[in-house]
Amino acid sequence: MARPESTNLIIGASSTIAKALIAKIGREYPDEQIIAISRSAASEHAESERERIEWLISDYSEQSMSSLSKEIQKRDVSLNRIFICNGILHDEEFFPEKRLKDISLEVLHKRFAVNAFQPVLWLKHLIKSLPRDQECVVTVFSARVGSIDDNNHGGWYSYRASKAALNMLIKTAAIECRRFAKNIKFLAFHPGTTDTPLSAPFQKDVPAGKLFSADFVADQLLKLVHDLPAEPYLNFLDWKGDPVAW
Ligand SMILES: NC(=O)c1ccc[n+]([C@@H]2O[C@H](COP(=O)([O-])OP(=O)(O)OC[C@H]3O[C@@H](n4cnc5c(N)ncnc54)[C@H](OP(=O)(O)O)[C@@H]3O)[C@@H](O)[C@H]2O)c1
């Protein structure tokens, strides 16, 4: 029987880092498939990378997550890498909170929805598609500011708290998955400050040499995922591969 094709699933595929990741996977693993999911259509850049990218649109409603996950499950593919890249720090209306007086329920809801709730809901719907025998690495894009131990500066209440919640949700999912599949590894990834729209308003304070390109981060991440040992099956690592305190 033919082996199912190794497939990379990239959710939040229009993120600057995700696009670099897609390009890199296309070059380094030309025999593997890529399924990309985003709110918006593929950019020309991503589309031109290779023919083997399948680009799916989602509004990230649970209905859409459920139907796309079922669609993926029906195919004869083996998901070997899953990257959930979505994350939001600011938008046209709201900047990260500096003080308690800046906090609003609306912003808390919005940040938690994208940074914590959507990733775990994707896992809920994808769980049946996770391979039971072949290796698979599930990466969620976390952030060092989501570390409770490492919070020495305060501020950014909703972003910090939603990434901390993401870390707890991923840890809990990893423990559950371990009960039925020993081959699935989980990575909460901190990319470092990367030159993307998300960090754009805050880049002026970044020390020289500490603002990374998306290409560099994608390179680091793919190496990390490739070299992840079997144990521990759950890690919170930065772009260097150094552990971040939970
Ligand atoms: N850049 C940094 O310095 C930095 C540092 C630490 C952590 N991170 C994390 O790295 C990840 C990638 O971010 P990036 O820097 O590449 O930023 P980016 O280019 O601004 O990408 C934003 C990402 O968030 C998703 N997104 C934005 N608004 C959304 C909404 N309303 N609903 C659902 N999804 C939404 C986008 O998904 P679509 O594809 O659907 O548009 C896309 O995946 C994020 O999780 C971020 O928190 C970044």
Strand content: 15-25%
Catalogue the unreliable spans: none
CATH C-level name? Alpha Beta
**Straight-line N-to-C gap:** 43 Å
Q: What's the total helix number? A: 6
Give the ligands present: NADP nicotinamide-adenine-dinucleotide phosphate
Count every beta strand, where a strand is a DSSP E run of 2 or more residues. 7
In spatial order, strands of the major sheet run 3-2-1-4-5-6-7
Estimate the mean pLDDT confidence: 94
Radius of gyration from the alpha-carbon trace, in angstroms: 17 Å
Tell me the CATH topology. Answer: Rossmann fold
- The total number of structural domains is 1
Question: Could you characterize the architecture of this molecule?
Answer:
The chain is of the alpha/beta class. It has a single domain (5-238), classed as NAD(P)-binding Rossmann-like Domain (Rossmann fold). Helices cover 37% and strands 18% of the residues. The chain contains six helices and seven strands, in the order βαβαβαβαβαβαβ. It has helices spanning 16-28, 44-49, 62-74, 105-126, 157-178, 214-227; strands at 5-11, 33-38, 53-57, 77-84, 136-141, 184-190, 234-238. It has a seven-stranded parallel sheet, sandwiched between helices. α1 crosses α6 (214-227), α3 (62-74) packs parallel to α4 (105-126) and α4 runs parallel beside α5 (157-178). The chain is globular. The chain starts with a strand and ends in an 8-residue tail after the last strand. The mean pLDDT is 94. The protein binds NADP nicotinamide-adenine-dinucleotide phosphate. NADP nicotinamide-adenine-dinucleotide phosphate is lined by residues 12-18, 38-40, 60, 85-88, 114, 141, 143, 190-191, 193-194, 196-199.
